[in-house]
Amino acid sequence: MTRRQFLQTLAALSLAAPAFAAKSSSVRVSGPAVAETLPLLAMGRAGPLPGSARTVIFTPWNSPDQLRAMIATDDVDAALMTTASACTLANKGVPATVVALTSSPVWLVSPDAALSRLSGLDGREVLLPFGPGEMPDLLLRALAGRAGVSFVPRHAGNALEAVNLLLLGQGHCALLSEPAASLAVSRANDRPRPGAPVLAKRLDLRDAWREVFPEHPQLAQSALAVIGSLARDAAACKALQTAYVQAAGWLAAHPRETTALAGKDFPALASQAVNGVLPGQDIRLVMGRQGAQDARFFLGLLHGMSPASIGGRFPENAFFEVDA
């Protein structure tokens, strides 16, 4: 589904306004193979949402286009996505409420041991999962632009393709979320090929963000957004928020159980566990008024680069409901 087709479908949906069945016994949630999705898996196995009879049904999404298609066909009620994507939905007429923000671990993975600061990217080729205008591209452009660094982007279809290109020596580094970053390093170095580079996680972009933007130190680039008519249901939004926060805390205390949860929906990730623990389980919740302010700052940077990246304008105040 192209972006234009997606927006046309959204316009039709906003006119039709399909209602969420009040007596529905489930809430459909979705997320990609990143650390912040793991609480959604726990929510799906924890029974009814707090204060609600609804249970959670989880379905993974594997590409931004797939997520857009799920939203456009009303196949999901809440999803983990970028803050910019959630803002775009709201601006295109799809009800969307952000109930949780996270500062996601995003690493520059490279064989270059000297890559410890953004300045090490200057003039270098960076492998970016997904296409131009998607979050990996926009995030690095926002940081590099403020830091006065110029890099050469090379877009890959997904994280695995980016890693394979890096192992072939086609690129200085790759920008990878967790747990893909940890798994890429482990896979490459546990079974090295003759002449293949030795990879390591060199720079966490959250650290670079704090250095470049000390007035807004939390990189609030990921969001759990409630979508469609359920976004107007304050009780349902609160239940999903509470469940997500509780699940994130439970996972932090039960890393081995987290690996077992990942086995069903993300078996390729679970198979890479080390001593029963899945790497990259570093989930940082960004909540409250300061969290919303940091997210708005991030959206402002994106708007300055490309207004279309957030749907053309800033969201209404009610867009962020992150009081927990």
List the helices and strands and how they pair.
Blueprint: H1 3-16, E1 26-31, H2 38-44, E2 55-60, H3 64-72, E3 78-82, H4 83-91, E4 96-103, E5 106-110, E6 125-129, H5 135-147, E7 152-156, H6 159-167, E8 173-177, H7 180-190, E9 200-204, H8 205-212, E10 222-227, H9 234-253, H10 255-265, H11 267-270, E11 284-285, H12 288-305
Parallel strand pairs: 1-2, 1-3, 6-7, 6-8
Antiparallel strand pairs: 3-10, 4-10, 4-11, 5-8, 5-9
Helix pairs in contact: 1-3, 2-9, 5-8
Question: Can you give a write-up of this model?
Answer:
The chain is an alpha/beta fold. The chain contains 12 helices and 11 strands. It has helices at residues 3-16, 38-44, 64-72, 83-91, 135-147, 159-167, 180-190, 205-212, 234-253, 255-265, 267-270, 288-305, and strands spanning 26-31, 55-60, 78-82, 96-103, 106-110, 125-129, 152-156, 173-177, 200-204, 222-227, 284-285. The strands form 2 sheets. It has a 6-stranded mixed β-sheet with strand order 2-1-3-10-4-11, with helices on both faces. A 5-stranded mixed β-sheet has the order 7-6-8-5-9. The two termini are 35 Å apart. Mean pLDDT is 86; it is low at 5-23.
